[in-house]
User: Fold this.
Amino acid sequence: MASAGHIIILVLGGLLLEFGIGGHATDTTHPRLRLSHKELWDLNRTSIFHSPFGFLDLRVMLLDEYQERLFVGGRDLVYSLNLDRVSEGYREIHWPSTVLQKEECMMKGKDESECANFVRVLHHYNRTHLLACGTGAFDPLCAFIRVGHQLEDHLFQLELHRFERGRGRCPFDPNSSFTSTLIGSELFSALYSDYWGRDAAVFRSLGRMTHIRTEHDDERLLKEPKFVGSYMIPDNEDRDDNKVYFFFTEKALESENNAHTIYTRVGRVCANDMGGQRILVNKWSTFLKARLVCSVPGMNGIDTHFDELEDIFLLQTRDNKNPVIFGLFNTTSNIFRGYAICVYHMSSIRAAFNGPYAHKEGPEYHWSLYEGKVPYPRPGSCASKVNGGKYGTTKDYPDEAIRFARSHPLMHQPVKPVHKRPILVKTDGKYNLKQIAVDRVEAEDGQYDVLFIGTDNGIVLKVITIYNQETESMEEVILEELQVFKLPVPIISMEISSKRQQLYIGSESAVAQIRFHQCDMYGTACADCCLARDPYCAWDGISCSRYYPTGTHAKRRFRRQDVRHGNAAQQCFGQQFVGEVLDKTEERLAYGIEYNSTLLECTPRSLQAKVIWFVQKARETRKEEVKTDDRVVKMDLGLLFLRLHKMDAGTYFCQTVEHSFVHTVRKITLEVVEEERVEEMFNKDYEEVPHKMPCPVQSNIPQGSKPWYKEFLQLIGYSNFQRVEEYCEKVWCTDKKRKKLKMSPSKWKYSTPQERKHRAKSDHYRLPRHALDF
Ligand SMILES: *[C@@H]1O[C@H](CO)[C@@H](O)[C@H](O)[C@H]1NC(C)=O
Ligand SMILES: *[C@@H]1O[C@H](CO)[C@@H](O)[C@H](O)[C@H]1NC(C)=O
Ligand SMILES: *[C@@H]1O[C@H](CO)[C@@H](O)[C@H](O)[C@H]1NC(C)=O
Ligand SMILES: *[C@@H]1O[C@H](CO)[C@@H](O)[C@H](O)[C@H]1NC(C)=O
Ligand SMILES: *[C@@H]1O[C@H](CO)[C@@H](O)[C@H](O)[C@H]1NC(C)=O
Assistant:
């Protein structure tokens, strides 16, 4: 026990060192932008489908770009949603279990909540039909759903005359882990296939080929697996050589120290496996598996491993034989929590399967490298022309080869990720990562993989990671944190459409869609656009807009974008960005009471920007950086004076620095009202009141907001609004007196009646805001 603890501490140290000193110039733990659910809504960037029946219990989603629908399977229901806008024009199929089935299910000891038909399989079967399977109150069944073409999308109905048994195709249990993929008319599935949830197996069924499975109760093949994903990935042009890959975790028999060690695996079978003739009859004869490693190299060769696969994503490339594989991993340690994303190339996976086998001499031996003779045909290879064409089917394989395959399902070498390290690691405990989807984008300075990561609290992170060859380190940039669901619900499924630039996100009770990008939101200056580092967006000379690689869109001369460095100063040189940014500086006036506290509010949009405060005191021309101490505190919300002094009066500049680009976000003139004056203001007549405070403009005060003077008086502890109002009317707000007021126009932009009138027509009056309500 003691030594185990020791190792973990060492490992942790290694990890911290690796990522702590790794040298991120910017603050990468914060997303650059955070968008609330409401903001996404106001931007029209999202749409949400809620089931009209009040429940969904989502289990599976199927994106069908051809039919232009998103199919969703849940409890007793299948929905067909509109890909353009999921909230509109949905169709549904009600597919409950019968009363009899439910009764039987409950009689067998299951809870009523489980005794429903949870639809867990949805595949595109042919041009006219979907294959759907449900748990059927612990008696799974499959059926076909007729779907229409684009023009007749009203069609969405269950073929009632043709139900099939679902055993081996769909789990009994609505919650047990499961994956399946349909190739031609053959369904490849990995699941717990019995009522008790004990028989974990990989199946091929449904089609015309022999139904085939892994052997029962063979721990060497699968030991308490959790199935995560499955895909057919061709090896070459010879279809007989096609292989189906399964991604799962299981208890690792080869692990020497700990019987409970969990490893992630990639397993594979030949799609055309027919089993053996005398041995492994109707069983896979080509099943092999290898360990998928995702670890951070540490000091002294001790790596920190992320062994619990949570989700897997296949990024298709132009070459369908070589998709890029993204794995989202969790740690299995109960001492240390963390997540990592690793990327794998098919070449590394194939290399592991083409490499040496692991071997176990007998019950007392450990798994070790097999160095003996490997039979022909090589176990795990398919009966195909590419492999010499000597065997038409695995049934013709010599017994020796089949016997070897049966006892050597594990490869000796693990599969290592690209760069031998994760592309992203999260150990700060801020997010629990559940789902991943990836979009590959062409940007001005190269290709980027934009990761969309779903969390367990309704959030999707949009992240890019940039590899630095020289330092062999990764920079991760969380471009956006999107609060997709109003409530912090776990995200359980994600589908991505690059064609539509939309992400579809499923939670237990709702399905949301979200557009990948909203370029104009970054701001109206070139610098804002560049600093965003969003590969989807570039400055086009006029605004921040969608970036299209050359040729595909109207050719604009200016496309300014720098995803790698976010160097706005360089990119935007000559774009008059300085002028524009200065123009955008907000100006405000704030009052504070002597000896009281005051907050000068300034929260830059970018959470990665560093804020620096400068002050220009009354008669000075020089700006100097504000010195903070225990009286003046820099906070996330702004600059806080715990106890205001008269000498604090002046003009404050809230500047942000991001990638060495400086931007003055806000200019606040702070007036300090002496304590006695506050009292005076109420007690003396107008004429004696120092006219520091302008008369509020009555018209055009935005609804719902209090006039500033009320806020001010409330601030200083004056709570009788009625009297305040009267007082203001009497003292400041008669027209006659307004004219008498001589306010400095530099402080009050719209101080003359003409100016005010003009302003009133064009815009709201800007209220000086006092933000003491932090
Ligand atoms: C919101 O976006 C959809 C397309 O996604 C569009 O059809 C709709 O008109 C937009 N609504 C508003 C108010 O802009
Ligand atoms: C698709 O499959 C269904 C179910 O087997 C079948 O009834 C239908 O005729 C098929 N459609 C086509 C176009 O092959
Ligand atoms: C299945 O999961 C749901 C939540 O996802 C939970 O409420 C339910 O209790 C689970 N059922 C079983 C049998 O574990
Ligand atoms: C990560 O693993 C831990 C322990 O294995 C588990 O408690 C946690 O739920 C996992 N996180 C997610 C998001 O699945
Ligand atoms: C500071 O303001 C509070 C009300 O916000 C008031 O009660 C208090 O008397 C003020 N203190 C001083 C020293 O003016």
Notes: The radius of gyration is 33 Å. The pocket of 2-acetamido-2-deoxy-beta-D-glucopyranose (ligand 3) is lined by residues 114, 175 (CB under 6 Å).
